[in-house]
Amino acid sequence: MKKKRNIKIILIFSGIFCIFLTLLIFKINLNNKQKDVWDSKLADETLTNILTQEANYVLVEHKMISSQFTQAILKNDNGTYKSYFINVKDGNLLNIEDIIKSEEQQNFKNKVHELIELKYPKFIADSLNYGNGNITYILKDTELIMYFYDFEINPKPLEELFLMIDYNEIKDYVNFPFHLKEEYERENGFTFDPTKKTVALTFDDGPNGSKTLRLVELLHQNKMHATFFMVGNRMATAPNVIKEVLKTGNEVGSHSYNHKNLTRLTKEELLEEEKSTNLIYKSITGQDLKLLRPPYGNVNDTMKQNLNLTFINWNLDTEDWRYRNTNHIYDSVINKVKDGDIILMHDLYETTIEAVEKLLPELYVRGFQVVSVSELANIKGQTLEVHKVYRSF
Ligand code: ZN
Fold first, then answer.
1. Residue-wise pLDDT tens digits, 17-59
2. Which residues form the catalytic set?
3. What is the per-residue DSSP string for 158-220?
4. Separation of 224 CA from ligand 1 center, angstroms?
5. Distance between CA 375 and CA 253 in Å, rounded?
6. Å from CA of 321 to ligand 1 middle
């Protein structure tokens, strides 16, 4: 009986002790939590004032970034973000310059410019870097996000414009604690998305000196590629143009040695054509030609059976050689273009270059990626085969 009572007492005491312990742990936790999340009434007051003024916005998040300041993130119905950095010592607002080291301000700006140019085509990057608009800075765990609003851009992109800057890029410039991703690799600016609409742009009959180079520059500015189908006897006169074309990710294919109608040639003559064109190209680039754009798009069985090349024709003809009118060429593409198209142009005419200059930004804002023929095939999951003819993907 006595033993039983002792056990009862022990049980009651251990019960009380357990409750006490739980309460203690709970209290320690609570204190810690409060310390982590909050220690400034002034920041709270400032935030209350902000929320009163920003009636169209709701608070998404308010957290300590460092012992110096908090970040409040607001969002409205359109999905537009605003952020406020609040000094916890006096409740005053800070701007981006206040949280970048004073001696690194210019380096930070230069880095932002560089990353914008890497991500966006020139017509957008120039406006974001040098134009007027509103920028919202949001500090995340491993990156700084910049949202760009109300910048004047022509043509106007429909997509949200933003830049995610990994702290690995700006770790020496910022004045607050952050986490560094262990593995970080910068994107090269030419990553193509297989889920987006994609077309191949092709230019025949070159190389053509400054006109070809101007097209290469326009493509590069817009982060796009094309395939240049060149005539063998012209290649020999312009090795540097060919190297320039390849340097920025474009592709070169054959357009025969001297632009003859290949369907009239014998097997031996065809093989001689292929050999002499490839010889010139290889002497300049060290590579073999793999693609053939047959002159006039003419292909017969003798060609298909004997030439060890992939035949690339087109399904969207701008007829730029016939009309030589910038708007006509522009309209012929923009009114018809669809995913998987191969577009035919010639790097011979000023009007073609003017049309391309207008066309590439417009294709970009309409969500088209513009690439070389081989890239298009690759994006569409197709392997280019020799002896076969392709018109679109
Ligand atoms: Zn041609």
1. 656 656 555 554 444 444 445 567 888 999 999 999 999 999 9
2. 204, 346
3. -SPEEEEEEHHHHTTTBSS-----SS-----S----TTSEEEEEEEEEE--HHHHHHHHHHHH
4. 22
5. 13
6. 10
